[in-house]
């Protein structure tokens, strides 16, 4: 199935805000270092990646992850100095299941969409 991102970067920002506020009703309790990552990725518009790679996707199969989401996740892993994709995937999985320390959650939420 072809990837499609109808909302672009604005949809990512809206999704992040709604998910973020579910976990952190008082966002000002987070440390400044966390906010540095949040602000940096907030303005990083990777939506052109979706249109560039549109032709690389097949019309068959399950709905894929958006290329911009996968790239954002990879860039965030590099920024956090996680060099192993296996470790990064485990961190994301644990965060989604609620097993991860809450302090890492806001940063890892940056890579979730949708």
TrEMBL record:
This is Uncharacterized protein. It comes from Clostridium scindens (strain ATCC 35704 / DSM 5676 / VPI 13733 / 19).
């Amino acid at each position: 199935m072809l990837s499609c991102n109808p909302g672009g970067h604005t949809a990512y920002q809206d999704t992040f805000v709604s998910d973020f506020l579910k976990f952190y009703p008082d966002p000002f309790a987070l440390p400044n270092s966390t906010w540095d990552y949040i602000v940096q990725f907030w303005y990083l518009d990777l939506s052109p990646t979706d249109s560039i790679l549109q032709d690389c996707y097949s019309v068959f199969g399950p709905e894929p992850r958006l290329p911009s989401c996968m790239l954002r996740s990879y860039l965030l892993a590099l920024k956090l100095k996680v060099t192993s994709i296996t470790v990064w995937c485990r961190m994301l999985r644990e965060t989604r299941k609620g097993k991860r320390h809450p302090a890492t959650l806001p940063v890892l939420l940056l890579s979730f969409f949708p």
